[in-house]
Write a structure and sequence with these properties.
Length: 578
């Protein structure tokens, strides 16, 4: 039942003169107590108009609230009720003064005084009992239910019970089931709409207020206010990123959506690493990397599956997302409650730039279509528009790649031959900037992609050689130089590579393998390319000897990794077997 409907029903039922017991049951965290407090405040401040429609003589409702948590004896509850009822004043207080006149305080049993209060004392008072599932083991549920029955039958009292019936102790479940049929007049299952739960906390949300959080909560049926509170806290903690993404709606949707998804999962999982491991095991293609075979039985975990459903997209996209840089940063935040602003901004900024460049690429496509099909759009206008775009944009690895850039330069040269040299010189300068800032991409690029850049002008080929040499000289430590020397870099000084690599001792190689994962990876790749090349025979012999030695190490981790590399190289005939 929604909050709105429950409020209407309670106003109707509790507004009558009859004694009544109402139970409000609901899952953990849906805000049952919060709802009651809001409802109570509205009653006492006369803000529920329907209440006065059903109870026209009322001048304002009074309530007493009893949390069973921490109560050790039934007398504690009786005392609490008594003190709250007389604190409301009116007939109860006057009646008490008369009863206690001339009686010394030490002789008064406060918990027993409730029996002295008559029905008039409970007029316009609703007693609410909460936290049944947290009832102390020293108190029997029968005692509490007996007191509620007494209030209803003997004091003509209205009672509201708030509980999570599903979370009662097993013996209390049996007791409750036994008594509730005779005791409870109305049972309500409180299940608020996600929008109603969000309304409770919405004022806390200080940022990303335009994002459709309500849609996400509704789609995933999240009405637990504790989960929603964790989501809002996470959004507020990442408010620093808003200025960086405010002009990129697609990136905003991605980043804010990611924060919400990770926070929603975090609020319900005890170990994120266990959850991610479970998701990885669901993908057969990843089993070898986990040391598992496809024949290994996968056991579905219902709880983890429910959490996985909180991430939008298909199974493959969900795994990719959980292993992404964004998700990794968010998971670290969830585990430590600390935000690494600098690191997060560093991840987000390229996304914003790529999205902007994709928009530029799309704009170029629109203008190209206009040039092809719009009879009123002249060649000069198209050339000018395209030039204005290229003038202010930079080349990137993906969104506005060298290939795309060169295609557009070619278009300009073909359409405007008078300015061909201007376009050519401009392209050289922009491509130089790209080469200098993206040497790793150049080294790993497909041959055709690389040649398309270098063949554009011989000046670019010379510039690339210069950048490679400078990169060698600028390596900040010996291991970086070695890694660079192992790479198959075009235009690299071949003799220098052979000389420097051959001078490395086995002890140096062993230490580099143990200390630097990038070096070991480089060795693996180097042997696949040069394992049988005679000019590198000395270095290959030393490297392979160290790998075989490590494969026999007492350190299982070292042995496992080294043996795997050796076996792989031998199976592919990249190195000779002993």
């Amino acid at each position: 039942m929604s909050a709105k409907n429950l409020e209407e029903r309670l106003a109707n039922i509790l507004g009558r003169d009859d004694a009544v017991v109402v139970s409000i049951s609901g899952k953990w965290g849906v805000g049952k107590t919060y709802f009651w407090n809001e409802f109570k405040d509205k009653l006492t401040s006369k803000k529920i108009t329907s209440w006065y429609k059903f109870n026209k003589k009322s001048t304002g409702q009074k309530t007493a609230y009893i949390s069973l948590f921490g109560k050790e004896k039934i007398s504690d509850i009786r005392t609490d009720i008594f003190l709250q009822v007389i604190s409301k004043g009116g007939h109860a207080l006057e009646n008490l003064k008369k009863l206690l006149k001339g009686i010394k305080v030490p002789y008064i049993n406060t918990s027993a005084l409730i029996t002295l209060l008559d029905n008039k004392d409970f007029k316009d008072v609703i007693v609410c009992f909460d936290d049944f599932e947290r009832l102390s083991s020293s108190m029997k549920l029968e005692e509490v239910l007996g007191l509620i029955s007494e209030l209803k039958e003997q004091k003509n009292c209205k009672v509201v019970m708030i509980l999570n019936e599903g979370e009662l102790e097993s013996n209390n479940k049996e007791t409750f089931a036994k008594y509730k049929e005779k005791l409870i007049d109305y049972e309500f299952d409180y299940n608020p709409k996600p929008s109603e739960s969000l309304d409770i906390l919405k004022s806390k949300l200080a940022t990303f207020t335009d994002y459709p959080l309500e849609d996400y909560l509704t789609r995933h049926k999240i009405n637990n206010i504790r989960i929603i509170d964790r989501i809002i806290n996470a959004l507020n903690d990442f408010s620093f990123i808003q200025p960086y993404i405010k002009d990129a709606p697609e990136v905003t949707t991605e980043i804010v959506g990611s924060i919400i998804e990770i926070a929603a999962i975090n609020a319900q999982v005890s170990s994120f690493s266990d959850f991610i491991e479970y998701v990885r095991k669901r993908s057969p293609s990843l089993l070898p990397s986990l040391g598992l075979e496809e024949t290994d039985k996968f056991i579905e975990d219902k709880r983890f599956e429910e959490l996985l459903s909180l991430i939008d997209g298909d199974d493959h996209n969900k795994l990719d997302f959980l292993q992404s840089d964004i998700a990794s940063e968010l998971i670290k935040y969830c585990q430590t409650s600390l935000v690494n602003e600098e690191s997060f901004i560093r991840i987000v900024e390229p996304k914003v730039e790529n999205r902007r460049l994709y928009s530029v690429h799309k704009d170029i496509g629109v203008k190209r279509d206009k040039h092809l099909y719009d009879m009123s759009y002249g060649i000069d206008a198209y050339t000018l528009d395209l030039w204005k775009i290229l003038e202010k944009e930079i080349i990137t690895e993906s969104a506005f790649s060298p290939e795309v850039f060169l295609d557009n330069i070619q278009t300009l040269e073909n359409l405007d031959s008078n300015n061909k040299q201007k376009y050519h010189n401009f392209a050289i300068e922009r491509l130089k900037e790209f080469i200098q800032g993206n040497l790793d991409w150049m080294k790993n690029a497909e041959f055709d992609d690389l040649q398309k850049i270098l063949d554009f002008d011989v000046e670019l080929s010379d510039f690339y050689k210069e950048c490679i040499e400078n990169n060698h000289q600028e390596a900040v430590n010996p291991i970086e130089k070695i890694i660079i020397l192992m790479r198959d870099e075009e235009n690299c000084d071949y003799e220098q590579r052979v000389k420097h690599l051959s001078q490395l001792s086995q002890e140096e190689i062993r230490q580099h393998m143990l200390d630097n994962a990038e070096y070991l990876k480089g060795v693996h790749e180097f042997l696949r390319s040069y394992g049988h090349r005679t000019e590198f025979a000395i270095y290959v012999k030393n490297v392979v000897s160290v790998l075989r030695e490590l494969s026999q190490s007492k350190n299982k981790n070292h042995a496992h990794k080294a043996l795997k590399i050796v076996n792989n190289l031998e199976e592919d005939n990249k190195i000779s077997k002993p």
